[in-house]
Amino acid sequence: MGKVYGSGWNLRLYERPDFGGQMVECSVDCPSVYDAYKLREAYSCVVTDGAWVFYDLPSYRGHQYLLERGEYRQHRDWGAPSAGVGSFRRVTEF
């Protein structure tokens, strides 16, 4: 069994770079960002607690990006070539 990564998870997604535009706050896994928040793209993000994996497609498919605590002013800061975020989930073990 792996080690527990953390006991709390929280992030804020923004529809524009540099934390602009609409913001949504999340603390649970999200299989479809569009269905849950009506966002097709997330240009920036702040991870305040825990670590998360972003996927560029819904249902936890596609390219994966690990985001740990910190500020990501644009999607390139987490290594994504585009701002499309289809789904995300919490990292609970490593």
TrEMBL record:
Source taxonomy: Eukaryota, Metazoa, Chordata, Craniata, Vertebrata
Coiled-coil region: none
Keyword Plastid: no
Name listed for the protein in its UniProt record: Gamma-crystallin M2
SUPFAM superfamilies the record matches: gamma-Crystallin-like
Annotated Gene3D superfamilies: Crystallins (2.60.20.10)
InterPro entries: Beta/Gamma-Crystallin, Beta/gamma_crystallin, G_crystallin-like
Pfam annotation, one family: Crystall
GO biological process assignments: lens development in camera-type eye; visual perception
Keyword presence, Repeat: yes
PROSITE patterns in alphabetical order: CRYSTALLIN_BETA_GAMMA (PS50915)
Keyword terms, alphabetized: Eye lens protein, Repeat
Domain (Beta/gamma crystallin 'Greek key') ranges: 50-92
Family: Belongs to the beta/gamma-crystallin family.
GO molecular function: structural constituent of eye lens
